[in-house]
Design goal:
mainly alpha; rod-shaped; coiled coil; about 170 residues; 2 helices
Length: about 170
């Protein structure tokens, strides 16, 4: 078996360089793809958050309007009850019942809204965590591939160093 010529060695080095560049390009493309995906997901999550916040504000405004309406109705009913009442006991009982119902209804509606939004937030966080874990796994695989290719190139270079050169000056 003859020693490789300088041209063979250069051809081999070009081939290895091309392979390494192709691997690096693939790595860059995957990294860009992941960055784009994360950017899209981040924009999507932000949009979802802002929609959620607008819906929350709308619910709060509706709740305030309902509460104001209920309070107005309560005041009207209280005035009417006082006008029609024959005794202080009847007015006190009617007022206490209306206030309790309004308070319980308001607290229940607020609690249901908060619970619903908390569940949605936790789900969004869970989905984001799963996406991050998947991307991390893919990046680790790419790193292992690049490390393996580097080791192969290093082993090849080391094996070529041991061969005598046939075209020495």
């Amino acid at each position: 078996m003859t020693a490789p010529t300088k041209e063979d060695f250069q051809l081999l080095l070009r081939h290895l360089d091309d392979r390494l560049e192709a691997t690096a390009k693939l790595f860059d493309e995957r990294l860009d793809s992941h960055r784009k995906l994360f950017g899209e997901r981040l924009r999507s999550e932000r949009a979802l958050f802002f929609r959620w916040r607008e819906a929350q504000q709308k619910l709060m405004n509706e709740g305030n309007e309902r509460f104001a309406t209920a309070m107005k109705e309560f005041r009207d009913e209280s005035a009417s009850a006082r006008a029609e009442a024959r005794s202080v006991k009847t007015v006190t009982v009617t007022t206490a019942i209306a206030a309790t119902i309004a308070t319980v209804g308001g607290v229940a509606a607020f609690n249901a809204t908060v619970l619903s939004n908390m569940v949605a937030s936790f789900e969004a966080g869970k989905n984001m965590a799963a996406s991050l874990a998947e991307a991390t796994d893919e990046l680790k695989q790419i790193q292992r591939d690049v490390t393996k290719t580097r080791q192969e190139v290093q082993e090849l270079v080391e094996s070529l160093r041991g061969h005598p050169r046939s075209n020495e000056p």
